[in-house]
Every structure is written in C-alpha cells, then in structure tokens.
Amino acid sequence: MNLSSIHMTLLIGPTLPVPAPVDLSQNIDQVEVSQSDEGRSGFQVTFRAGRSGPASILDYPLANHPLLALHNRVIIMVIINGLPRVLMDGIIKHQQLNPSNEPGASTLTITGEDVSVMMDQTESTQEHPAQNELIIANKIIAKYARYGLVPMVIPPFTIDFPNPVERTPVQRQTDLQYLRSLAARFGYVFYVRSGPAPGSNLAYWGPPLRAGLKPRPLSMNLGPETNVENMDFKYNAKEATQVHGQVQDRTLNQKLPVITFSSTRVPPMAAFPALPFDLANVRDTELKDIEGLNYAQAFARAQSVTNKSMDNVLTATGEVDGALYGDIMEARGLVGLRGAGFQYDGYYYIKSVTHQLRDGDYKQQFTLTREGLGSTTPVVF
Predict the structure, then answer these.
(1) Class level of CATH domain 122-206
(2) CA 257, CA 263: separation in Å to the nearest integer?
(3) pLDDT digits (tens, 9 = 90+) for 122-143
(4) Fewest C-beta atoms under 10 Å: which of 62, 245, 275, 337?
(5) Quick one: which H or E segment has residue 178?
C-alpha cells in the first residue's frame, strides 16, 4: 500500500515475521493501528476476501490462510519520506469473516494487540526470594526475549532488598499484571513499545516519560502551513486532584503525613497548571491502600495519582491527513501546536493516536493532554 511518499509494509509469520506474500498484500483493504498510553495498543487489518475459481469451491481462500492463523505475529511499518517507522508489533488474537452477497464485498479481518499480550496469558503463583522490584522486573522481561523485548528498567529512588526471614515477594498474577503492580508502588509504569527496528520492542519499567523525537508541529489557521483538519479543546480543572493522608512507615515505625501540591511531570507544558493556579476547582482526596508501604513508596503512590489527574485537565482531540502532515505521531511522545492562540498553543503530551490507512488515504486521529492553560514557549518545533 502506498500514498505518494508514504508506503506501508506488512510483515507476518509465526515467530519471525516476513513480508506478506502477494495474495495477502494485494488484498489489503484497510489497516488501523491504535496506540494508547494506557493498556495495550491494538491493530486491525481488513482483507478483501474474494471467492472465485476452483480453489474457492469449498471455502474462502483467506479463511484458511496459514499466515492469518491466531497467535501469529504481525508487524506494521510505514515508510514516510524514506524513513521506516514501526507502528505495531503484535499478535493476532481474533479473526472475523464478513461474507457478502455483493461481488467483491466480502472481507476478512484480523485483530490483535501488541506483544505484551503474551505476558498476560497465564496466572501463576511464584516466589521471588531476596529479590527487589528491579531484579524481578528484569527477570520477567527476559522470559520474553523471543518477541524481541529489550528491557529498559529504571531503578526506583528507594531500593528495598527483602530479608527472606521477614518477607518473600510472591507473585499471584500474570507477568504483565505483576510488573504493573510492582511499578505502581513507585508511581512507575510498565508498557511495551513497538520498534524502533522491525522485530524489536522496548519493554519499559520506570517513571512516566515525556520524551522522544518530536513530530512536526500541528498547525491551525496558518494558511498554507495548516495541517490540522479539525481540532477541539476541553478544559476541566476539576480533573486535577490533590492527595493527602498518613502512612505508618515500617522502617521508622512512625506515622508520617503524605500530601501532594502539584504535578511533577517533566517537562512542564502549561504556563498556568490547574495546580496551583486554580485551587478553587481542584479535588482533594484521601490516600488509600498503602498498608505495608514505607513513606517513599506511599508518597510515590500519592504523587502518581496527582500526576495522572493533571494529565486530563486540558484535552485536545483532532485529526490530520498523513500525506499533508508528512510525519507520524506516537503515543507517549510530545507534539507542538501553533495557531490556536496563547491559551492553547504550546506543547502537549500525546495520549493516544489511531492510524487509519487505505489506498490513497492516511488519517491520524489523536488525543493530546496537558496540565493547564497557556504556552510555556513562544515557538514550537
């Protein structure tokens, strides 16, 4: 599939995907990739499932195609301006046939999720004696090396080696659930990001990031520079949440106060974040489920609640034409916006992106967030 300077490549196979054969690539009708900073990312590939000739007497040829079998691996790449970008490295989880009485209207759709879905298949009870969260995270990620997982594990600011005489960490969840629960103790996150090279995936365990290569700025009301087809903004300071409470620190054996004042996300992107500039409208909540945590872990849990709430104070949704935009937006990155006025211009965090590709058409639908109004910079790049 190609669109002027944009080309899409589909790799598919049991373990090591290879370029899709002609009988598949020529019948691609539509590809959709959904990336989000929460949960797993997903994909859908729709094929035209024609039925004609002797080979189609018994069934639709694509219905039994070995490369479209469940649990096969799919890599979707877009080459834009000569630069390959991996949109998805995932596993087929569902297949749907839609027969039609109209000639050429039958379709077969495969649906799947990124390779982290393989970490969420089996619940197990497993002990991790004398191992802290850092060691456990690296050990679990290493089990999935066949899916190209490259670990990036950031040490927490406090490392507690459990004494086997006092306690032993026990896993009673799937590997994915356990990694996320370990991360939540420090306000961290765990996710798998496809790429950058085909067949490789970054398994990230650490604090939420606002980093990476920035795509082209989004431009509104700028004449020939305009590349945004439509955009809407929603400001709601009531989403911002302060957290307060007390924790019985097991190390000091004392009750210590825990309270948050503002977001610690870096870099800050709003000149006037709801906290502390709109205190009359923010929510105040009590910290819960902190039994057994020390002060540092409890504060990290509280701060993660505040940080996450601030991400939803200002939300922008819109759509760009991929050919006109000439770049690719990816979830968990940053993008600049210009032409919307001081209150809404500036940098935003990319919360989610949906890529829709068909012959002659490429759309990117996005959701952007930040902690308040006002740009922190006069120029975006």
Answers:
(1) alpha beta
(2) 18
(3) 998 999 999 999 999 999 999 9
(4) 245
(5) helix 175-184
